[in-house]
Amino acid sequence: MSETLFQLEVRPNIPEKLRGLEELANDLLYSWDRDVRGLFYRLDDELWETCNHNLKVFLRRVAQNKLDEAIKDHLFMEEYSRVMSSFRTYHEKGVSPAITAHLDPESDQVAYFCAEFGLHESFPIYSGGLGILAGDHCKAASDLGVPFVGVGLLYRQGYFTQFIDGNGSQQAQYTPTNFDELVVQPACDSDGNAFYVQVEIEARPVKLKVWMARAGHILLYLLDSDLEENSSEDRSITFQLYGGDSTTRIQQEIVLGIGGVRALRALGIEPTIWHINEGHAAFQIPERCREYIDQGMDFNSALELVAAGTVFTTHTPVSAGHDIFEADQMTRYFKDYIKSLNIDPETFLALGQSPNNNTSFNMTALALRGSRFHNGVSRIHGGVASSMEGYVWPQIPPDENPISYVTNGVHVPTFLAREWVNLFDMRFREWHSELNNPTFWDCIDTIPNHRYWSLRQELKAQMLEDVNKRTRRRFQRAGFSEAQLKRLTSYTGEPEQNVLVIGFARRFATYKRAALLFSDLQRLARLLNNPKRPVMIVFAGKAHPRDKPGQELIRTIHEYSLRPEFIGKIIMLEGYDMALARKLVTGVDVWLNTPEYPLEASGTSGQKAAINGVINLSVLDGWWGEGFDGENGWAIHPHASNADDTLRDQEESADLLDILENEVIPLYYDYGSQGYSSSWVKLSKASMKSCLPRFNAQRMVVDYVKNFYAPARYQYSRLSAKDCAPARKLSDWKTKVREQWGDVSIRRVDDIRQQIHDGDSLPIVVHAGLNGLVPEDVVVECVVGGRNDGGEFVSSEQHQFRHTGLQDDEHVFELYLKPNNSGLNHYKLRIYPWHELLSHPFEMGYMLWI
Ligand SMILES: *Cc1c(COP(=O)(O)O)cnc(C)c1O
């Protein structure tokens, strides 16, 4: 028998003079306000670490005498007043003109749905890139004053904590969180009462509690099924992020999509713009349709209305990454629900149809069909998504279909090191309001080189100290001897040594090719071990517990890291989270990314690195395809992969080692008489000043507001005017087009001249059989352009035909074509259905060419 270990938390009485600390601890603004965190750190730096930077837990455990001493400490109290007053100023700040130019803060409301939100390590409801992007979106929305709420799930166990044992095996630890210890509180309905919402899961009612988290100006509503009233099965729906199997997944998505809409309604929130961030939340579409259908509308008109106000962002560049449910699973979960939509099951299942998956239901397809505004997350990824998801608009060439892109950006106050913030505050006072202004950031050049270099070295020293602690902790636990620990930390333990540090931290998915560096071990060892020019590489990242190849990669890196030629030079860190990410992206010298082109949707860690003056060395994929300008870092050009993946990997790996050997290492160690490399500083400054204004989250949110939210709002208000008559009209028109389009035909009847003289125009005449459609239902168009290097046609102008009459049941359309350019032109002729209420001219997916 072992005795019980009881626990007793003795909570301090917070002195009246420090009451504001409670307010600070209950607002996730602390996740991007370093001064708030600094205040807590000053009170007790040890407790700060042991409670994992959780302010709420900190305030419950901090010793009474620390607080009592603090109120007698003038310097502390001054800092406290300063932090409180800037906290108040932040909350009183109005909406940015960049937003009011497009949205009305009084009447507009954005509801942003996502399966994960990564705001801070103390709030573990995120796994990686998607969540942190969502967190950054919320933070920038708050900074700009966008009328905005987030909707997600409150996971009892969140994502796993990663440990790596002495053999390099990843151990996933799930720790249940006590919601008391998170920055959440029960949400109240519009009458101020706590409330529940309900969803049906296989005909069982499941009750959901709604929690609320505050993050500056915005609120986050999070759903939780872990309630006594629910069966133990249902209680576990919201246990783990990306845990369980496809049953858990569909249940979570019902809770998020359907429960999320019901929660907003109960709260009295009336969104005018709905943003679905990745397919997980797409069940909000049928739920919002059901609301209109309950009021007597037909399904198709309801879908028009819902889609008009909806923005969908896709993040996954491979179709295998999309959520797909089996048709029988869908029928089981949605049998009764489909009846409430007044449609037959086939119509419902068709919303999720995608090629090669005829019997299953694809959440990305649902999201695309239920939204009119769609985007990928970088220029390259926008193109990939247009091709991959082009099946939704089968007759439209992918480069013209409605999927466009907004390149991701990172939240600067979250990821910019405190030392840079202090320097900017001192030298460039107004920098906060100039984030998106590229010319402003030329000011980086005015920072003296030696100052710049020493600041970077200081950040590196802090990072190495942290790496040292983490490495010792990890290997002590694994039972390594002190002599081994010494070898493992030979470069991190002595911060006065100068060493070039390369960072590689990301999800260990195989396409990210973490092991690309290791194709030529001898050469790598030679590069790292030159005593005059030492180089260290730090790895970190989690693999999903079901991703065996990803875990194998972690083991591989671990094994390399223990080889005699690499020990202390290659480090594999465990427990990648936002805290470690902040250390690495601010402290390393070079940020390495080696994805297989074109599988990196965007990548954001390289952006975090760049704004801190870290130099990117990356495959030209994702955001770096736009970010690299030839003078702000290094690029590995993707080799064609159509022949042989192994060969491509070898070639790209050789390129990588060449760049390291011939460019990176010599540049870093090109010390002049002043004791540092001024050419390195030049490149680092170029990285910072070119990336900061372009790849920050405010730029991203303003792009969304301008190009997606405002048009969606406009489109929704058009269709919902006059009791939604326009939505019905558009829906009826689409029904008619769907019935008739199959037999529409078009042919050219003029004599097809091939030359004209400058100043003349070319008469073109086509005859179209409209099969019952009228000329106003279609556009006949001439697309003029040229050929690109690859010989493909690229359009540059469009000219519309005029309807001029009827001849033998065929409609006559004529155009007098005058191309903008003389010389050799190419052109194509096409017809497509068109209605003035459409959101995008090609949204029906129909188009015929001559
Ligand atoms: C930024 C970040 C990511 C995403 O970075 P990628 O470049 O997309 O791999 C993942 N995890 C953490 C903890 C991060 O901070």
TrEMBL record:
It comes from the Bacteria. GO terms for biological process: carbohydrate metabolic process. Belongs to the glycogen phosphorylase family. Keywords: Allosteric enzyme, Pyridoxal phosphate. Transmembrane segments: none annotated. PANTHER family: GLYCOGEN PHOSPHORYLASE. GO terms for molecular function: glycogen phosphorylase activity; pyridoxal phosphate binding. The modification N6-(pyridoxal phosphate)lysine is found at K608. It catalyses: [(1->4)-alpha-D-glucosyl](n) + phosphate = [(1->4)-alpha-D-glucosyl](n-1) + alpha-D-glucose 1-phosphate. Residues 14-122 form the DUF3417 domain. This is Starch phosphorylase. InterPro entries: Agluc_phsphrylas (IPR011834), Glyco_trans_35 (IPR000811), Glycogen/Maltodextrin_Phosph (IPR052182), Glycogen_phosphorylase_DUF3417 (IPR024517). Pfam families: DUF3417 (PF11897), Phosphorylase (PF00343).
